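Worked example

This section walks through a single chain of length 188. The input is the sequence exactly as stored; nothing has been trimmed or padded.
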Amino acid sequence: ATQDDRLMALQAALGLPASAQRIECFDVSHTMGEAAVASCVIFDRLAMQSSEYRRFNVTPAQAGDDYAAMREALSRRCARIVAGEYPAPDLLVIDGGKGQVAVAANVLEEQGMHGVPLIGIAKGPERKAGLEDIVFPDRDTVLNLPSDHPGLHLLQQIRDEAHRFAVQGHRARRAKARTTSSLQEIDG
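Given that input, the structure is written out below as C-alpha cells.
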C-alpha cells in the first residue's frame, strides 16, 4: 500500500498518467575513469524487479566521461527496447543533472522514443537527502519536492538502488582487472 501511495504521489507531482507503472533508472560508476559500469534498474508492479536489472560495461573514448558512458548505455538499452526485446518505460530516470538529462534526451530522440517521459534526479547544492533537484530536459527550472513527499521517497529508493547496482558492478570489474596481468598471456 505504501508503494502504491508513493507511485500515485509521484504520478501527480510529475503529471504522469495513472497508468504509469514502469520506471527505469540509469547510473554510471567508475574510479577516475577506470572500469566504468552503467546500471539500469527497473521498478514495476509496485516493486523493484531485480531479475530485469542490467549492467553495461562501458568504454567511453575519454576515460571518466560520464556523458559518453551514459550515451553508450542508453543507446544500447533503447535499441533493444525499439527492437521489441523489452517494454518501453513509463518514466526514464537518470541519476544526474542537466548534462546527463540532455544526453538522455538526445538518445531518446535518436532512437525514436520521444514519447517517453524523462527526468534527472540530482543531489542539491548541499548534497543532502531530501534536497534533490528533479531536472527536466525541456525546462530551465528544477522541481524540488518536500523532503517528506512520498513521490520523492520512491525516486530516492529507485536512484539509490541504481547507484548500489552500478557500484557493485564497477567494483567487480575493477577487482577482476586487478587480478589479471598481461604477462599471463605470454606462453611459457
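What to look for: The mean pLDDT is 89.
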